[in-house]
Amino acid sequence: MVGFWLTRERIARVSRFGHDYLMESGRDHLDDVWGPAYRWEHTLRVAHWAWLLAREEKADVEKCIVAALLHDVSHFASEDYRKHGVRSAEIAKDFLLEERCSAGFVEDIVYAVKSHVGEFDPKTVEAKILQDADTLDRFGYFRILLFGEKANLSNLKDLKENVESFLEYLSRVEKGRFGPMWTKTGERKLKELINLNKTIFKGVLGEIGNTEVPEAYFER
Ligand SMILES: [Fe+2]
Prior knowledge:
This protein is mainly alpha-helical. It contains nine helices and no strands. Helix 1 packs parallel to helix 3, helix 4 (84-98) packs antiparallel against helix 5 (103-114) and helix 6 (125-136) runs parallel beside helix 9 (184-210).
């Protein structure tokens, strides 16, 4: 491809742009758990997954990372959340053209970003990798910690209900709640993460069950 930067410099510039755009457009949500700081951290983790999947799947690593860095850039700028893929793609297109990236490069990024939301069956390897990378970050260690932050840990009855419904949700994910995973590596990694989540949340249910007065042992 015709480019004016070395890969490393391009990625640094895209990263700066993505970060600044999110922070600026999300400035009214700075204190939210799911505010721009979270969204940017999610973006970085998706970029990491995209890098890992791109290497495993022999895809274009740079394109996959750039698409990941821009995929949610309009998160706080889209009035309709369902349109944040299309809106992020428009923002990505303007930025990348201004940065004098080749038309083909821009087209591939725009397609991947646009198709990460909604009912798209992604047609390109970059789009497949972006969708898989985005799904994988829903089930990582960080999301497990965020579950705890959002849950009321001092109310075991509520916690039990939340954990039970999360475990049901995990079963729906296993049955394809987010549609199929598009890459072999993504599918394998998702299985690992779902199993991790199940182990932890089933363990939490077990501990909630054990949080009882010792006299209860003799009634079992
Ligand atoms: Fe995302």
